[in-house]
């Protein structure tokens, strides 16, 4: 859990959002808060537009639900590992766990590097160049591309891939670069209770700037229309068709259905190839990592269907939601088509 949390934390200290934003923690001894004035909070968060419970000059405290460093700090109170201590620091969480465990700690080693070396191989014995060539040649008329440049200040040779096969999350990261791709099971034996239509969606952070971000969750049952809007593929940077969803939003607010059946064909330091069948026929996403991030979406034989072209807007123009009930302005994407 701690290794996963560190891996999904972007260079800005916030975790990538996948499906519903459930914190999963009953007790938070030292949650992270940001102090601002009510006026500043109302300017930043759209949901506070008509907030009048306090004066504009009074202090407003916002809990940062995407900052999970305190969880690692708590784990380091039980697991004796240097990387946990460095990442999480020593906090009230650490001291509480140490007290509960009688200051007895479990020795552990960081075996992530070993796993990473094993993950530098192709999946299903697929050669990336051959697979890309095959897909593009077969469906050459239905390909759509977008490129994100990587500045020279980032050494692409230092990008580390970290893959979570069973969860369905593929990450490439350095201290100034973060790319994640969602491709895999939706949970709850295919019911997808907390899943969104985010198969093949990405998040991208480059050199201090969030280029592409998952929109978040915003609400559960309070507003079914808004909940489905945030669950929709149209709100994610993923292959999409106008008016179509790879998983039905009509089953329930807490059921999605796994008609997409997303699969990974290839993943390594150099890129990713995956597909899903949520639109009845395969749609592929190819990501090539070099001095730029080249994303190619390939739609197999959709001559009579209106697809949504991949463009610099990435997804629907909905406010970014960092936690339940909160909305803020969505960040602009900087892409070169």
In short:
By secondary structure, the chain is of the alpha+beta class. It has 8 helices and 16 strands. Strand 14 and strand 15 form a beta hairpin.
Task: Give a verbal description of the structure.
The protein has 337 residues and is α+β, with helices and mostly antiparallel strands. The chain folds into two domains: 2-110, no CATH class; 113-308, Distorted Sandwich (Beta-galactosidase, Chain A, domain 5). Helix content is 18%, strand content 24%. The protein has eight helices and 16 strands. The strands form five sheets. Strands 5-15-14-13-12 form a five-stranded antiparallel sheet, with helices on one face. Strands 6-7-8-9-10 form a five-stranded antiparallel sheet. A two-stranded antiparallel sheet has the order 1-2. Helix 3 packs antiparallel against helix 4. The longest helix has 11 residues, at 128-138. It is globular.
